[in-house]
Amino acid sequence: MSEQSLRWAGNDAWVxxxxxxxxxRRVPAYLVFTVVxxxxxxxxxxxxFGGAIPVAVPGGYVNYLLPGVIGQTAAFATMATxxxxxxxxxxxxxxxxxxxxxxxxAVLLGRLLADGFxxxxxxxxxxxxxxxxxxxxxxxxxGALGMIALAEAFGLALCCVSMFIxxxxxxxxxxxxxxxxxxxxxxxxxxxxxxxASMPGWLQAxxxxxxxxxxxxxxxxxxxxxxPLSHNGDNLWLSIVxxxxxxxxxxxxxxxAYRRVS
Length: 262
Fold this sequence. Notes:
Largest sheet: none
Shape: elongated
Low-confidence stretches: none
Structural class: mainly alpha
Order of helices and strands: HHHHHHHHHHH
Mean pLDDT: 86
Distance between the termini: 27 Å
């Protein structure tokens, strides 16, 4: 691909990105509601369940909790990707975009960039809420930035899954129902809110070997340093492997589903 073609594709992707961002700019309530759910989770677990869940991390349960909420927020934020694409496929918007003289990659890349920006704003708001209820970083500025970067990367990887689901199902109700089926077990049967040792052995076998647990343990390690419950930096490499693997599998599937929309 020539430099001119790359510049053309990049400009088209930016136009689609701005189009998607304009929806949130003109309907700010949409962006507000995207941060309400993780904020509620943070406050509920901090003040309702926090006193009943002992954890061996510096700063207590709030420091254990927030990396879990960050990981869950990155995962749940991807539901909007699937729902938006399903609505656009159902209403014929994608068909109209496909017949326009724009780069074929622009629609999916623009959606990914816009949702990545929305996700980043949400993650930063949740960190601010965490600080307001007592969370503190213990691993320096580099660890804090690394935590946000890893959560963003994980969210973008799951956006590829959501793009495929939205374009394959093409029904808003079906996408919402299916999103609950695959996201809730991954996020709640993990180390997000409780130590894995508190789970039954058969459930631990799943929780220990799934991507959300590895990512959240890595987020916790970058935020707090080595602790008995953040384990060590090995989770970071496992997280990267999962992220690369998810993108390698689901991005081509999303592209294929996009081409089959009619």
